[in-house]
Design goal:
Helix content is 67%, strand content 0%. It is an all-alpha fold. It is a multi-pass membrane protein.
């Protein structure tokens, strides 16, 4: 039996989540301590965002290249696995070089820190594109929203581990002669990352390119057609008739065309991905401001410390304590988002996709706009924990829309990489605008965070324009193939949900 015909094992949907947890643990350590480390080797607040351009620039360049290359990779190890392994090796190397850069001679500290930081972001982006594509490749349609919900769980798990490590005073200690705290923290994070990626890569079952069935004959595509025709349009057809050739052709005609001969712009998935991408662009404008400055804000403007002070000085101790407070708060964010990912599917079913997404986006805006009024460690902890709610929606809803819309597309890697641009482009924008904003507001970091909040407000408004794939309304239900498809009983939300049979259909 070919791997294309082999039924997916129950644990397949968990494997991308494990690797994603490892990636998020690395991101958490980087977000928690990259800016303080860069500041400690002589970089100013105004130049820090320019170094953070590494993430979006590598995302714009690396992910589309790796995505398109992995789509046509004929390696005997699979299409996605070779790139994930290469990215993992480079990530471990870059992470440890970056952590040890403060221990080098003074003249080498800053250039080595910047170079390894850029290599680290490029390596992580080398993993993330194939990792998202692996969900669409290896997980059946009915289980893909659950797999994306598991990504939200894995995001919380990884962040809990990474920020939890960063909050420990035992792993991050600085004195006048010791910088070993960075080495120990980043070393443990790289070991956790390597273990989780190794498990995911070794157990994942990939379908070789030569064994992929055509779109119309794909069992998982037929399953989506059965979900759509029976569950959304109200057709009384049986499960067997809904997957008949005539029904399939009707659905494909309504959805649009796909295949190597159809341009990306006319692919059936493109309108879904474009509109979700507009929201994600505004959302990541907000998130990236927190990635760059959240811990620095806590250490400098809430704890009133200084990253420029000598290790062991009172000002440096205040700064380090503020950074640890922010890491503890972000650890709480990770824990709560992990718990929220369990109940998030039920919330979506009760409140509707767009309404849930809009409320979470609005909360993100309120948290960031309120940062100028936070003046105590308790306020940092509360705001950090509240970030768990929009974080859950960011990692669940838009990516579920993307993977569900790709079931009629042969360009999974390309489209997941293109959607990642909606996260990279606003990161470039906030990196370039931050120095100007800081100059305008006398170097106050809260000015950048509040500007990110305005981006989240824009994202809230754009959600009304999003197309929701029909199968999303039967999301998070793991179907038993021997059981007939169950239809959704929830009525669409009047403000944010449209009639999925017509209004959310995609014109060709």
């Amino acid at each position: 039996m070919s791997s294309a015909a082999r039924p997916a094992r129950w644990y397949q949907k968990f494997l991308p989540m494990l690797a994603f947890s490892g990636v998020q643990a690395v991101w958490a350590v980087q977000i928690g301590y990259a800016t303080p480390l860069l500041r400690s080797v002589g970089l100013t607040d105004e130049l820090v965002p320019l170094v953070w351009l590494a993430g979006p620039v590598s995302g714009i360049v690396v992910q589309p290249l790796i995505g398109s290359w992995s789509d046509v990779c004929r390696s005997r190890f699979g299409r996605r696995r070779p790139f994930m392994v290469a990215g993992a090796i480079c990530t471990v190397l870059a992470l440890n070089v970056f952590a040890n850069s403060p221990r080098l001679p003074e003249a080498a500290q800053l250039p080595v820190a910047i170079a390894s930081f850029w290599l680290l972001d490029g390596s992580i982006n080398m993993i993330q594109g194939p990792l998202r594509a692996l969900v669409a490749d290896s997980v059946p349609v009915a289980e893909q929203p659950m797999a994306n919900a598991l990504f939200a769980f894995g995001n919380g798990l990884g962040k809990s581990v990474g920020y939890g490590l960063g909050a420990s005073p035992l792993l991050v200690q600085h004195s006048a002669s010791a910088f070993s705290g960075y080495s120990l923290l980043f070393g443990i994070a790289s070991a956790v990352f390597a273990l989780l990626v190794a498990i995911s890569v070794s157990l994942a079952v990939e379908v070789p390119l030569d064994e992929l069935p055509n779109v119309s004959g794909n069992k998982w595509t037929e399953e989506l057609q059965a979900l759509t025709i029976n569950g959304i349009s109200g057709t009384a057809a049986s499960s067997s008739s809904s997957s008949s050739p005539s029904s399939s052709n009707a659905l494909l005609s309504r959805q649009g065309r796909s295949g190597p001969e159809v341009s990306i712009w006319r692919d059936a998935a493109f309108p879904y991905i474009l509109r979700a991408g507009l929201v994600q662009t505004a959302t990541y404008f907000a998130w990236y401001s927190t990635f760059i400055f959240w811990t620095d804000w806590s250490g400098k403007e809430v704890a009133h410390g200084s990253a420029d002070a000598l290790p062991g000085s009172p000002e440096r101790e205040l700064f380090d304590r503020g950074v640890r407070t922010a890491n503890l708060g972000l650890c709480l964010m990770g824990v709560f988002s992990m718990l929220l990912s369990i109940i998030f599917p039920a919330v979506i079913r009760l409140a509707g996709v767009r309404r849930t997404w809009a409320v979470c986006e609005l909360l993100l805006a309120c948290i960031l706009i309120s940062t100028p009024f936070v003046s105590s460690p308790a306020g940092v902890l509360v705001n950090s924990a509240l970030l768990s709610i929009p974080l859950s929606s960011t990692f669940t809803i838009p990516w579920s829309i993307v993977t569900l819309s790709l079931q009629h597309s042969t360009r999974t890697g390309v489209f997941t990489s293109l959607f990642n641009l909606s996260q990279c482009i606003p990161e470039v924008a906030i990196s370039l605008l931050s120095p100007l904003i800081l100059r305008m507001f006398s170097g106050r970091i809260v000015s950048v965070l509040a500007t990110g909040g305005i981006g989240a407000l824009l994202g809230t408004l754009l959600i009304a324009l999003v197309h929701v794939p029909p199968a999303f309304h039967l999301e998070f239900v793991i179907l038993d193939e021997a059981r007939p498809v169950q239809t959704s009983k929830a009525e669409p939300d009047a403000a944010f949900e449209s009639s999925e049979g017509e209004e959310d259909g995609v014109e060709s």
